[in-house]
Amino acid sequence: MSPGPAVAEAVVFVHGIWRRARSLNRLARALQRAGYLVLNESYHSVTHDIPEAAAIIWRRIESLQAPRVHFVTHSMGGLIVRHLLGAHPVPSLGHVVMIAPPSRGAALADHYSHFPFFRWLLGRSGLQLRSGDLGLGASLPPPPCPFAIFAGRRGTPRGWHPLIPGDDDGTVGVREAWLPGAAAFITVLAGHSFIMNHPEVIRGTVEFLQSGQITMCGSGGEAVVTPACR
Q: What top-level class would CATH report for the domain 10-229?
C-alpha cells in the first residue's frame, strides 16, 4: 500500500544484506517515540542488485507526502540510498544517517568473491560491495544533504578480522565506512550485526535527524566523534 499524506516528518529505513526490516525495529521505535513517521519494510537483498533495490525503495516512497524525508540505513543500505538519491531527487530531503556502511567497498567482499560458494551466497548485490571498479561504492555520489556515519570498532589497531585493514566491526572496517563530506563520523565499540542497537547510535541518530548535528563527545570512550561534528 502506498504511503499517504503525513503531517510528521518521515524516516525511511533501509536494512543491509541478508537482513530484514525487523533488524532495525529498536531504532525505528525510538524514532517513532520522537514523533517521526517510520517506513521500515524489507526487500530481497540478495536476489536484487543495488540499483534494483534502490528502484524498489523509490517506488515505495515516491508518493510520500511529508514535510521532510530522512533516511537511516545499515550496512549495504547506505549504498542503496546513495544510488536512490543520485537517480531520484527528493524535494523534501532532510538528513541521512548511515550505520556501518561499506562506503567505498569492503575487503571481505573482495576476498570472498573469489570463491564460487560465497559468490552465490553474496548474490549480485554482495558482489557490488567490492572495492574499486569491481564495486559500486567508489562511483556512487555522497548524499546531497547533511549526512552522518556511525562505524563499529573493536578499539584495537587490528580490529576483529585479520582480512580487514585497521580497526573494524568484524565485517566493515572503520576506514571503509568513511565517506568525504560527512557532517559527523562517529565510531562506537560495537559489532556489525547489532551496531544499530547501540545506545549512542540510537541517541545520535535521533539528534542528527532533528538538528543535523551530533553532540555526544566525551562519552567515556564508547563513542568517538570526529572534529567535523563539534
A: alpha beta
Per-residue pLDDT tens digits for 114-162: 998 888 888 889 999 999 999 999 999 999 999 999 999 999 999 999 9
DSSP string over the chain? ----B-SS-EEEEE--TT--GGGGHHHHHHHHHTT-EEEE----TTTS-HHHHHHHHHHHHTT-B-S-EEEEEETTHHHHHHHHHHHS--TTEEEEEEES--BTB-HHHHHHTTSHHHHHHHHHHHHTTSSGGGSSTTTSPPPSS-EEEEEEE-SSSS-S-TTSSSSBSSSSBHHHH--TT-SEEEEEE--TTTGGG-HHHHHHHHHHHHHS------STTSEEE-GGG-
Q: Where are the domains of the chain?
A: 10-229
172-190: pLDDT as tens digits: 999 999 999 999 999 999 9
